[in-house]
């Protein structure tokens, strides 16, 4: 398993009270010495007790012991300050920026010059939705664009599986790489890796409670938005769908709503799959309809608008690479 001393220091710093993503982004650039980090924690955090270098080194050794147990399930971890740490897309506030990532597979799929589109949706799409989603993903993959999704059942799995037919895909997990969630998609995760794809997560330990797990799913939804150049909603119930349609025997609202919200906040282009004549009375398109009615910047996918969106992504990413080369040589 690959990791730098810097990455372990970043992870260790976050274990101390009052140290979150925002604090680390504000105070650390990466590759600071342990002594410098300890000094910053003591002077610029809500840590009540003074910590010593020995305290820090002890926590650091505990983390190293824990992550080295991953063995073959994880290729490595990267953090801010590491050369290979991927750059997020969009405008992201400090508290939501990633500071370290555990990965297995081809980490370069998150590079800015790699064209990525996230495809998400509900857990139980009907057959018509699946057919339409597969066609969209097929068109995206034809243009050499990587599909990003969350390895969940339903629309996520459909996106990953279709992408594997001639393309590559990135799965973002709410769990350690040593414990794939959902467990029934472990085979799909392995297939993604075999086809040259990527698995990533911000977690190296298991969740401690239902509330903790819920928070991790929200973090997963956030990463789906900030590691893509555009996000597509295949279909999803809305927050009030259960009450509206009197469906109380299952959870209808999905993480897709959160991911689309994050994308809006980050200024990531958003698109939805929707056909007014076919989908008007289908509750599985409640969120799609809601987004279309509330947001003027939502693209309704057709073959033409999909191709235009891909063209814009490729043109924009090409320009970003040219600017980086001009700046850094």
Automatic annotation (TrEMBL):
It comes from the Bacteria. Residues 77-235 form the Smf/DprA SLOG domain. SUPFAM superfamilies: MCP/YpsA-like. One of its GO terms (biological process) is DNA-mediated transformation. It holds the Pfam family DNA_processg_A. InterPro entries: DprA, DrpA_SLOG. PANTHER family: PROTEIN SMF. Belongs to the DprA/Smf family. This is DNA processing protein. It comes from Cyclobacterium lianum. The lineage of its organism: Bacteria, Pseudomonadati, Bacteroidota, Cytophagia, Cytophagales.
């Amino acid at each position: 398993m690959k990791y730098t001393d810097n990455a372990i220091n970043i992870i260790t710093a976050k274990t101390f009270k009052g140290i979150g993503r925002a604090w680390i982004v504000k105070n650390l650039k990466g590759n600071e010495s342990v002594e410098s980090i300890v000094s910053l924690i003591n002077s610029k955090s809500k840590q009540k007790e003074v910590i010593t270098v020995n305290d820090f080194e002890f926590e650091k050794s505990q983390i190293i012991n824990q992550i080295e147990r991953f063995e073959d399930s994880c290729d490595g971890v990267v953090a801010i300050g590491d050369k290979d740490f991927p750059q997020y897309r969009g405008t992201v506030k400090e508290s939501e920026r990633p500071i370290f990532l555990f990965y297995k597979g081809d980490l370069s799929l998150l590079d800015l010059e790699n064209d990525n589109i996230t495809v998400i949706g509900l857990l139980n799409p009907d057959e018509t939705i699946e057919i339409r989603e597969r066609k969209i993903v097929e068109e995206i993959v034809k243009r050499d664009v990587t599909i990003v999704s969350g390895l969940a059942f339903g629309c996520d799995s459909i996106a990953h599986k279709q992408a594997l037919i001639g393309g590559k895909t990135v799965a973002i997990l709410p769990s350690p790489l040593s414990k794939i969630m959902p467990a029934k998609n472990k085979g799909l995760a392995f297939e993604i890796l075999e086809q040259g794809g990527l698995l990533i997560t911000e977690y190296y330990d298991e969740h401690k409670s239902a509330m903790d797990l819920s928070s991790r799913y929200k973090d997963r939804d956030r990463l789906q938005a900030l590691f893509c150049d555009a996000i597509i909603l295949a279909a999803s119930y809305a927050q009030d769908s259960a009450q509206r349609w009197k469906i109380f025997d299952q959870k209808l609202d999905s993480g897709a709503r959160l991911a689309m919200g994050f994308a809006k906040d980050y200024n990531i282009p958003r698109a939805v799959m929707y056909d007014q004549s076919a989908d008007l009375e289908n509750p599985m398109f409640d969120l799609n309809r809601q987004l279309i009615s509330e947001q003027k910047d939502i693209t309704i996918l057709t073959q033409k608008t999909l191709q235009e969106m891909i063209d814009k992504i490729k043109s924009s990413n090409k320009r970003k690479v040219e600017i980086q080369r001009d700046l850094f040589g």
